[in-house]
User: Fold this.
Amino acid sequence: MAIHLTKESKILVQGMTGGEGMKHTRRMLAAGTNVVGGVNPRKAGRTVDFHDRPVPVFGSVAEGMDATGADVTVVFVPPAFTKAAVTEAADAGIGLAVVITEGVPVHDSVAFLDRARKRGTRVIGPNCPGLISPGQSGAGIIPADIAKPGRIGLVSKSGTLTYQLMYELRDIGFSTCVGIGGDPVVGTTHIDCLTAFQDDPETDVIVLIGEIGGDAEERAAAYIRDHVTKPVVGYIAGFTAPEGRTMGHAGAIVSGSSGTARAKQQALEAAGVRVGRTPTETARHVLAVLDSGA
Assistant:
């Protein structure tokens, strides 16, 4: 099994005919992802050939869903148009929208996330690398060749650290890796993924990657303490961040002890999470958990 994305998922790509959309659609197809269509109202009715795989372009998400049975959309549209794209997808009733776009205004994110929640559409992102269930499907920009299928579940704010931990643990493998994005407002949270991994019988250990700033990791720690029985290993980016300076794509500001990597580490460790100070140390903790059968 996997969470949110399986080999049965049928994927539309909003913005498929743009530069980034074309590049990453080609990569998704090469990885075996079932991309069933693109969406661009100005190019509806055309077909784009990706080597030996023709992919039709639809005028709307609703049209694409009706024609193909798609249940996932990946959004590669510019920030100014992201609100409209996600709102369209939610109004069409799609189950999952993966929003890769960086630089989406926060007020736009708040608006489309509220709309999606009311329509029953799960949003991952914005400003995220997407998610991948190795050997099954990938929606977004996570490379498919850095990990194999396995029994580790990973949820991360950081795209780069998602890739690094996948590579560090490539010989063990993953059920699903989810990059939730580091913007101040995101659709799917650490807690959402912890819940799903806890319920997934094919996930044995969970890796949680956080960053300085905000309190998402502290809230995740409280949830782990009360609801997660599987072992969790954590990593917090930003142990060396200077106090009072804006850091990272999350725009995180560390002031005093609030939002620091150390404070997050303490909260997670109090909930029974092993926390590494580097990605390599974090990977060693995962291997130790698997070796111990804990």
